[in-house]
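Notebook entry, structure prediction.
Reason for the run: the old model in the group folder had no record of what sequence produced it. Starting over properly, with the input documented here first.
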Amino acid sequence: MLSPDEFSVGHIASARGLTLVLPVDQYDHLILVTMVDTEPTAILLDDRDQFEAFGCQANTNYKGILIPDVRIEVDETRVFDAAGRWAVPGMIVRRDDSLFICARANRQPGSNRLVALQRGLVACEPSLAIGFSRWQIVVGDGHNKRTLKFIDLESRPN
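New structure, fully documented this time:
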């Protein structure tokens, strides 16, 4: 459950920080919005077009329950060396001073890219990167922490 002060309702263009957008009707999507790079970017998380990314500045086509300041947690037991190979869509990647998600761009197969979710972390050693196939989106801290979305790429059908 969410406290009233943990969310608002609006279009994805209204998102601030790392925001999870919960759908409110059948035409909406479960979306993660990141504001880290120059243009706000939306990543679809539900089954329809999962892990597709698109710019969302001034976007009023998608709406929902906006939950700002969510955090990403990774399962450290589901890792791979991301320095030597490209991540698959949905994979969380930690490299340099950042956390990324591998997303599809422009609905084109093979056009995957890393979208920054967080920057300013302790820097990794140069040329090293690690990927995570199991992760979750959480809100709150301590006893008030709740998991809002759990992703396990290993359990997905091919």
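Summary: The CA atoms of residues 12 and 25 lie 15 Å apart.
The old model has been moved to the deprecated folder.
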